Amino acid sequence: MVAGPLPAPSGPGKDRLRLWIRLLRASRTIEADLRERLKKDFNTTLPRFDVMAALYRAPEGMLMSDLSRFLLVSNGNVTGIVDRLVSEGLVARARRNGDRRTSMVRLTEDGVKSFGIIAAAHEGWIGELLGKVSEDDARRLTGMLTSFRSNWEGRE
Amino acid sequence: MVAGPLPAPSGPGKDRLRLWIRLLRASRTIEADLRERLKKDFNTTLPRFDVMAALYRAPEGMLMSDLSRFLLVSNGNVTGIVDRLVSEGLVARARRNGDRRTSMVRLTEDGVKSFGIIAAAHEGWIGELLGKVSEDDARRLTGMLTSFRSNWEGRE
DNA sequence: GCAAATTATTTCAAGCTTAAAGTTTTATAT
DNA sequence: ATATAAAACTTTAAGCTTGAAATAATTTGC
């Protein structure tokens, strides 16, 4: 007598599993919506937006490895995205005098201008997409996710 | 006098933006970890796991379009993943008599066995990764995400 | 000084992903 | 009946993603 594949999941561990599934679905739902809007309204992509957002916060520039660490993606991945942004004139690489392995990556003037416009729209979209989440819940959720992050970073 | 790019974000709408960023980072962090474990321990991938998980819940099989809707990915995407799973003998396609456009996709016997093993490990990983989230927070978070989902599905 | 280890980045192959266009089959409206 | 539309998939091209291997520059340990 074996449990079928379809009993309502319950028991220890199931609460965490359910939480993970909800979390993943929520973020994929929102991500898909943002991706579509970025394409339709600005003919760009989420990875490009992510890179530009990171660089916008660092006017002095970032190393490739900083970018990949910050964005939680692989090194090789960032290379390709930055290559495309460079070819579009939105981002520039500058070799450094000190260490010739590294290059400082930063937004160009065009990049800053372009990102500013897209970011404003983006913030509006998020307000729209998450509008039904009460201010209170938003802050509570954020708090929980922040403490998740702290625990994660402090893990052995 | 323009606000610099680095003031702590604040004001209306910023709470939602911050929530979204936290949500995205949490799910990417966990996703990256799961991806790595799936590769190392079972030489498989998250998309393959996702498809198999969906099929495991539907012993009678699913249509390709059901799969893509459920997983929130495009049609063509599912085609490729299922192709690979079929070539590995974990999944089977069966043409239906009724409608020759469609094919019922289901796990093979091997697929069921294989998924059972991986899913057990997966649940353990999640328990581990989210272990620091209290039972209470887990349930609260799940509740908020569930209501987000309802609002989303009920949007105009 | 110099070999060995480390660090920063790029390249590569395989696979994932999307949006758009194409194919085949079924349903609908004359 | 038969054109037209709709539905279920697949194919395609471009881009994203990873992990591993390759390059090049710097640092470390004798």
Question: Helix content range of the residues of chain A, please?
Answer: 55-70%
User: What is the H-and-E element order of chain A?
Assistant: HHEHHEEHH
Number of DSSP helices of chain A?
Answer: 6
Q: Describe the main β-sheet of chain A briefly.
A: 3 strands, antiparallel
Evaluate the radius of gyration of chain A. 20 Å
- Biggest interface between protein chains, with counts per chain? A-B, 49 and 48 residues
Strand content of chain A: 5-15%
The backbone outline of chain A, from C-alpha atoms, is globular
Arithmetic mean pLDDT of chain A: 90
| Overall number of structural domains of chain A | 1
Structure report:
The first copy, chain A, is mainly alpha-helical and 156 residues long. Chain A is built from six helices and three strands, in the order ααβααββαα. Chain A has a single domain (30-140), classed as Winged helix-like DNA-binding domain superfamily/Winged helix DNA-binding domain (Arc Repressor Mutant, subunit A, Orthogonal Bundle). In chain A, strand 2 and strand 3 (103-107) form a beta hairpin. In chain A, helix 2 (46-56) packs across helix 5 (109-129). In chain A, strands 1-3-2 form a three-stranded antiparallel sheet. Chains A and B meet through helix 1, helix 5 and helix 6 of A and helix 1, helix 5 and helix 6 of B. Chain A binds a DNA duplex (30 and 30 nucleotides) through residues 35-36, 39, 45-47, 63-65, 73-81, 84, 99-103.
